[in-house]
Amino acid sequence: MHEAVRDLEPRDAEACDAIIAGLPEWFGNEQGIRDCALAVRSQAGLVATDGTNVTGFLTWTQDRERGVAEITWMAVRATSRRRGIGRSLLGALIERLLEQQVHRLDVKTLSERAAYAPYAETRGFYLANGFESVAELDIWGEDNPALLLRRSL
Fold first, then answer.
1. Closest by alpha carbon to 54, among 75, 28, 33?
2. Which of 8, 20, 66, 67 could form a disulfide with 45 if both were Cys (CB 3.0 to 4.6 A apart)?
3. How many whole angstroms separate alpha carbon 111 and alpha carbon 126?
4. pLDDT per position as a tens digit, 76-116
């Protein structure tokens, strides 16, 4: 069945939590898990569904005055990865942001300095979808160097 993308709703929060629980290679940090759970309950978001189940989600924040948005969390169910769901979610977000005159989309992920293989895939996804590396940031502690990626809209 073809994936549909719609607004994240309160009833989706537990499904999003379950997606995160099924991706321990990417979501093993307890504080990060708590922060993501809060985001799906409080931030703007989108979910992809297969008609019955949530297969992926993303959340974002937005600075309307500056015309900038940032993806805060994004994940696709382990058994549904590599099927274009992340690209569909990103495309739907970009459409929405363009309607709101947002001109820049940022995302932070684990830097390659961390030498943690699963995040090479994550960085590859963003780079393949028009994002460019902007800066290395030390915002998550010594063991979790961050990479800021940016896409002009």
1. 75
2. 8
3. 13
4. 998 888 888 999 999 999 999 999 999 999 999 878 776 66
SS3 content of the chain, % helix, strand, coil (to 5): 35, 30, 30
Q: Which residues constitute the domain of residue 38?
A: 4-152
**How many structural domains compose the chain?**
1
Using CA atoms, how far apart are residues 142 and 129, in angstroms rounded to an integer?
28
| Distance, C-alpha 77 to centroid of its chain | 12
Strands (DSSP E) found in 29-143: 44-49, 54-63, 68-76, 104-110, 132-137
How far apart CA 10 and CA 42 sit, in angstroms, is 9
The token duo for 33 is: 């898990």
